[in-house]
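Section 5.1 Outputs to date
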Amino acid sequence: MRQDDPAPVVRRAGLGGGYLAVTATCSPSERDLPFGVVSQLARGVWKLPGGLPEVPGLSAILHGTSDPADQAETARLCHRLCTSLIDHAEHTPLLLAVDDVRHSDPASAHFLLQLVRRLDAARIAAVFTDDLSLPAPSLPLRYELLRSQSLRRIGLGPLNREQVADVVVAELGETASHRAGDVYAATGGNRLLLHTLLSDYREHGEPRQAGYGQSFLSCLHRNEPIFLDVVRALAVVGASLPATDLAWLTGQEPEPISQVLAALTGAGLMDEGAFRHEAARLGVLNDMSARERRTLHQRAARLLHDQGRPATTIARHLVRAGQIPDSWPAEVLLEVAEQVAVGEEPSIAVDLLEQSFEQCPHEERRAALQAKLAEAEWKINPSTATRHHTPLYGAVRAGRSASPTASPSSCNSCGRAV
């Protein structure tokens, strides 16, 4: 998973001096854009002194006015561009840096394949960043990069505790050394999170959703959609979950979810499925639409109920969903609410029963729900429970009560026996 930018790799490779750098950033959203990565590189070279000679047929494609006719045409265009770049580098050595190369579009991947095979005979240095723990749509490109004798592999993981402590002192001063432990816990050594968090500390004194939280989100948006799916589910549940549970919540398969969890931990973004700071979790929740949050809360409630988890947790998800699915029978909702009401958070039972009562279209079930609601409210504030007395009394007299034992107790709590 992407840590930050290719600069640390460039430095460790001993490159940069005497080279003119040209960069491109690959994105999942542009994977279907022919020559999208090539376009970024070409525009970078065109801006250099001397520019890049016109490559016949390429300009129209880069400007979106035409597409390659077939694979043969793509191969010819890639060959012409490679030749043009190599010739240009004879006068001006180039450093090409391509970030998240696994997301390159097929046409650009074809070009990069051709270029890598010619690096030995060119004054061109290339840096490619990628996360090898994740699957790559362009397997030939990945295999070629790994086996190429012209390239060497440089691992770039998160910083360790000591390195984080050094950065904290360097950026915030010796007096901030006591923060090093908290900073490492919140960033896992991830370079982007680290520098954003230190900026938050320097300017605001604490991590912020607008700073640290946004940096966390940017790392997710730079990757496949499954990353957002998994992290959003974790944000809604508020706790780490096994891959099988996340698969049920997201509709994805367990195996790729396990890969995502490993990548998130390896990048320092999360700690075995747990958020490193609440600002990151809140940032993810605020990045979701109300409909997305509602759906995940509903699915989480169903999953936890089927697993026999605590009723309070189930009720909290149903309340936060704001809409209880029709698939929840009133009898189950009453059971959950009753279990919650006898605990230490009767207000959650009240919220759940109020929602259930308002959404239930069946008069008999509404009477049972209202009876239980009056009982739950009585435990919090007896004066508010009296508002249910008249409709409950009428329901019992009309024979609409679905719970003969619940209604009398509710009415008795209001001061009148039925």
